[in-house]
Specification:
The structure is a single chain. The chain has 533 residues and is of the alpha+beta class. The strands form five sheets. It has an eight-stranded antiparallel sheet, covered by helices on one side. Helix 10 (304-321) links the parallel strand 18 and strand 19 (325-329). The protein is globular and about 75 Å long. The mean pLDDT is 94. Bound molecules: glutamic acid (GLU).
């Protein structure tokens, strides 16, 4: 999830915020916007697309004022468009908010606010924040108090910055499960999702913690946790901008590997209710959810890494739902005259939502009158626009070339679909669905634990990096994981690698194995583990 920058000081706020947003561009985004308080009125400029377009708009619509907030968006709710770009405003337009993250309970809140007469102008989850703050301020509270009450009503993940025309000297920030830092200057203070945004102005920063609220003016920053005033340590960072972008990681791919727990959690956020043992996808899948009980066949169409997550899907759907499932490499599917019968669904898996062969596969299904479901990371992508329904993986942008966290996000989405269908098709007893729901809920913690072993993996890499060939073996769900491992090694290390179902070893590949051929066996606790050894 993308970027927030806010400023209170003596310079032109729009310029400082724009500059900060540019420094967060590496995080990826689909839209951007800025709002400032200009003579007790809030003015904003926003739009879909690149920051350069925002910069052009700002040249035409100059924003003056010394307090402002800005945002780069990676859409999770509603397509990338001007209406959905942040900042989002209250009914009267005198309160605006930028937000990174997902508000899980926004549908219920929105229903109540609509019933109370609030007018919504976007499809985002974020907009409820502006209206909630408006509601609380109209009952007599100040901005700080209104934000405090608002965050006690919302659930999910958020980093927010809010300004109000009635309090033109400050902005309020709050965070939960999404990063925010405060930068301390001389007669000016800053807020950002990440350090590079503030580095040209200050190296003195403080990190907001979950549950923190900050009230920032030109002359100072106050921190609160609930009602209580608290202190946060000021840290002096000695990074340069480039270093800061990647945090403590050597490259983006490594950073994204470590973002997997977050990616998995964001994918099931607001969709998985482990205590009740359900995954609720009805709203998103409204156009196909009626099909679930009568589905007779699923075709999964994908390329590369997404193809491998599709293969895991096949194992899951056939085992737990007794639902026949074929998985095709999209470039084969589109040219091989697949037979698509009735009560069939084509699932297209594509991180970007723009993979040409996968789109062609979807169009082929559409032409045959078969409904399609896109599992994609990009809201508003071609796949999401063309599919009958979309399930978004919400992993945030992937900067690294090789897909990592997007793969785990896709697997999570497939599991959610499995649970939803298992209930709708009565394919599994409720207690089994609950057990599986709890296991997914637990996955981020388990992945974090596995990532603690990074040093051991690095040791193996040092031992084997001279290898010319590599073999990955696995059975059952781990067979697609072996394929994915081999793909990663080829792509990133330029080492020839093959993934094989372990049981196939004796039918040929064993001839290649000698003392120089490293073999990676993926053998988790499963029904086929004993067969491998
Ligand atoms: N959920 C919000 C939206 O879709 C914020 C997304 C973000 O983190 O950029 O607008």
């Amino acid at each position: 999830m993308c970027g927030i920058v806010a400023y209170a000081g003596h310079r032109n706020a729009a310029s400082v915020v724009l500059d900060g947003l540019k420094r967060l561009e590496y995080r990826g985004y689909d839209s951007a916007g800025i709002a400032v308080i200009d003579e007790r009125r809030i003015k904003s400029v926003r739009g879909a697309g690149k920051i350069i377009a925002l910069e052009q708009s700002l040249k035409k619509n100059k924003l003056s004022g010394v307090v402002g907030i800005g945002h780069t968006r990676w859409a999770t709710h509603g397509k990338p468009s001007e209406e959905n770009a942040h900042p989002h405003a209250s009914c009267k337009g005198d309160i605006v908010v930028v937000h990174n993250g997902i508000i899980e309970n926004y549908i219920d809140i929105k229903k109540n606010l609509l019933a109370a007469g609030h007018i919504f102008r976007s499809e985002t989850d974020t907009e409820v924040i502006a209206h909630l703050v408006e509601k609380h301020m109209s009952l007599g509270g100040g901005l700080l108090e209104a934000v405090r009450k608002t965050i006690s009503e919302i659930t999910g993940a958020y980093a927010i910055a809010v300004i109000s025309a009635s309090q033109p000297d400050c902005f309020i920030a709050a965070r939960k499960d999404a990063p925010l830092i405060v930068g301390f200057g001389e007669g000016e203070n800053f807020l950002a999702s990440d350090i590079p945004a503030v580095l040209p102005y200050t190296k003195r920063v403080a990190f907001l913690e979950d549950g923190d609220i900050a009230r920032v003016t030109a002359s100072g920053v106050e921190f609160f946790c609930g009602d209580e005033k608290i202190e946060r340590d000021v840290v002096v960072v000695n990074w340069d901008s480039v270093q800061a972008q990647k945090g403590n990681y050597r490259h983006f791919m490594l950073k994204e590997i470590f973002e997997q727990p977050q990616a998995v959690q964001d994918t099931f956020r607001g969709r998985l209710y482990p205590e009740e043992g359900i995954a609720i996808l009805d709203e998103e899948l409204a156009r196909i959810s009626g099909m679930a009980p009568s589905l007779e066949r699923v075709h999964i169409v994908a390329c590369g890494t997404s193809y491998h997550s599709g293969l895991v899907g096949k194992y899951l759907f056939e085992k737990f739902l007794a639902l026949p499932c074929e998985v095709d490499i999209a470039s084969e599917f589109r040219y091989r005259n697949p037979v698509l019968g009735k009560n069939t669904l084509v699932i297209a898996i594509t991180q970007s939502g723009e993979t040409a062969d996968t789109l062609a596969g979807m169009r082929l299904a559409k032409a045959a009158g078969v409904p399609t479901l896109a599992i994609t990371n990009v809201v508003g992508s071609t796949a999401s626009r063309e599919a009958s329904a979309s399930l978004f993986t919400r992993c945030g942008p992937e900067i690294g070339v090789a897909s990592t966290k997007a793969f785990t996000g896709q697997l999570t989405a497939i599991y959610l679909l499995l649970l939803d269908w298992a209930a709708k098709r009565k394919a599994l007893p409720p207690e089994e669905i609950k057990r599986m729901a709890l296991a997914i809920w637990d996955a981020p913690v388990r992945i974090s634990e596995a990532l603690k072993d990074a040093a051991a993996v690095e040791k193996l890499a040092k031992k084997f990096f001279h290898a010319k060939d590599f073999l990955y073996l696995g059975r059952n769900y781990n067979y697609p994981i072996a394929l994915e491992g081999a793909l990663k090694l080829k792509e990133i290390s330029y080492i020839h690698a093959e993934g094989y179902p372990a049981g196939e070893m004796k039918h040929g590949p064993i001839a290649l194995i000698d003392e120089n051929m490293p073999v990676m066996i993926i053998a988790t606790a499963s029904s086929t583990r004993d067969k491998i050894f």
